[in-house]
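Lecture 7, part 2: worked example. A protein chain together with S-adenosylmethionine.
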Amino acid sequence: MLSEGWEITLNKLTTPIFKQPEVSANAYQTIREFIYNEAGIDLGSGKQTLVSSRLNKRLRHHQLDSFDQYLELLLNKNSIEYQVAIDLLTTNETYFFREAEHFNLLKNLLLQHHPMNKNFRLWSAASSSGQEAYSIAMVLDDFFGSRGYWEIFGSDISTRMIKKAKSGLYQCHRIDAIPKDFLRKYCLKGTGEFDGYLLVDKKLREKTRFAEINLTKPLPEVGEFDVIFLRNILIYFDNKTKKNIIRSITSKLRSKGLLFIGHSESLKGMDLPIELIAPTVYQKK
Ligand SMILES: C[S@@+](CC[C@H](N)C(=O)[O-])C[C@H]1O[C@@H](n2cnc3c(N)ncnc32)[C@H](O)[C@@H]1O
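Predicted complex, written out as structure tokens:
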């Protein structure tokens, strides 16, 4: 039989330390409108659990009891919560050599069409933490060697992801798709406090620049590109936003430049100044 003391201990342990507030229908609607207006992301209906799991830590951080209180903070124009919420509500999944066929295709297209005396510029326009941009950097360095000039520009709406991308430092998980010779040639293996990490080689980091860009807003001056990767982001947008973004970024493509989108994404039926030349690869008309 448990003594009184034990019961008190059991009561203490079974009482949740922090009761997760629920996202009311009104609060959900406001957050849905916020992320749609600010980032173009269409959450759809019924994603209260997702929103709650992503933002709850912010309620804890500010010691708030409800999402209504959190919204007061978020919707205050000068609040730092604005960027934090965008960072938390975006899905940043990425890994090296994701959808590997695109990297082979890029190399083949370069072999067929690119004159070595011309600067080659590529934009990873939703780069997340940078693995896509650095995968491309490995392909370009391997292809060009010392024969030509190339540069990569990576951008994302998330401050947190851009900071990580600039560091070029990654945990060694989901790195299986990096070709073994590239791993040896372009990745430094961490030791001591960096055990379990890899650092992208300085030579590639110096040619890969990152900046924060929201693709739903007017684009800053970024110059023109031969190739733009815009992969695994269009799925979060409705057709109107998708079309506006594609129009805006293709204005930054050089004549006959190429746009790569994700394997599960489509631009079917949209009136755009590009034509399909291979599955998920478009060329500027
Ligand atoms: C799933 S990741 C894709 C990363 C990489 N392109 C890939 O295929 O692995 C989508 C990225 O799009 C970014 N994103 C979402 N809305 C954006 C917007 N309006 N402007 C710029 N980036 C945005 C997110 O922050 C996220 O890092």
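The longest strand covers residues 253-261. The two ends are 81 Å apart (CA to CA). Keep this in mind for problem set question 3.
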